[in-house]
Amino acid sequence: MSGRNYYKSVFTVCVAFLFLFMLQAGAMAADIASELATHFIAKTPAPEPAGAMQLSQAMKIQKEYLNIIGKEYGPVIGYKAGLTNEAVQKKFGVSHPLRGTLLEKMLVPSGTVMNADFGVRSLSEGDLILRVKDDGINDARTPEQILMHIDVAIPFIELPDLLFATDVKINGPKLAAINVAARYGVVGDPIPIDPTTEWFDRLKNFTLQILDEEGAVQAEGTGSSILGHPLKVVLWIKDSLNQDGVMLKKGDLLSLGTITKLMPTKPGTTVTARYTNLAPDGPVEISVTFK
């Protein structure tokens, strides 16, 4: 065999092995996604996934997982950033946020009464949603430019579900695989935003308190708790999606992450989120009651 033919044969074999590896990796991602989605829909604890999982693989699993649960939870209405708070990042062993997707039936109105065990490992946290005004947001390069393409802020209590059995150590990739624990979230009325310096500062400096049914403060945070400014989170979500070939569009809802600490849900309680110095006309509250 000539040298040229030898190298050609080696190249052909390498390509074939790479193709088979990609097929196997794709099949493995689909299998893991199917198992996780089955547990999500049945609300049963998911076991440790087979093999070590890298973030790139986790995002492939997340895509398949969303295709399955979307049949029950509806179409995509937006996206979420998780681990936007440094303390929460440390808990899951990462140094960066994670991206998930919001589906239509995940969002419920303020005042909703629901089971405390709405998921496998049910939690609540204070959050905020910003809504995309137009697709010009995809050209924004700074938080100040992002503000020009946001039309409302929506008070939001996220109700995530860690899904895995309690003996599973959850890290960043595992959290990404289960769509950054998205399950439900309580939304309030939209608060109109103007692209002004006043609103830029308002988004950074507002205070969010989580109150119990007796009005006692259980947790507290500010807009600056998430990457230093909520608009930096939007910029991160936009860049993350654009890198994967996805463009934001008018009406997309963007959940910005953990402003207050995660707290387990308990029957017979009401969780209220109070936003101070967010709306110009005074504090705003939303709530959810657990039975």
Question: What does this entry show, briefly?
Answer:
The protein is an alpha+beta fold. It has helices spanning 3-42, 55-73, 86-92, 143-147, 172-177, 197-205, 230-243; strands at 76-82, 98-103, 107-109, 113-114, 123-132, 150-159, 184-187, 191-192, 207-211, 217-222, 253-255, 263-264, 269-276, 284-290. The chain has a single domain (3-290), classed as Fumarylacetoacetase-like, C-terminal domain (Fumarylacetoacetate hydrolase, domain 2), CATH 3.90.850.
Share in β-strands: 25-35%
Structural class, please? alpha+beta
What's the overall average pLDDT, rounded?
Answer: 91
Instruction: Determine the CATH superfamily.
Output: Fumarylacetoacetase-like, C-terminal domain
Please, how many helices?
7
Overall geometry comes to: globular
User: Rounded to an integer, what's the Rg over CA atoms?
Assistant: 21 Å
Could you name the ranges where pLDDT drops below 50 across 5 or more consecutive residues? 10-26
CATH architecture: Alpha-Beta Complex
The CATH C-level class name: Alpha Beta
Briefly note the CATH topology name.
Fumarylacetoacetate hydrolase, domain 2
Give me the strand/helix succession.
Answer: HHEHEEEEHEHEEHEEHEEEE
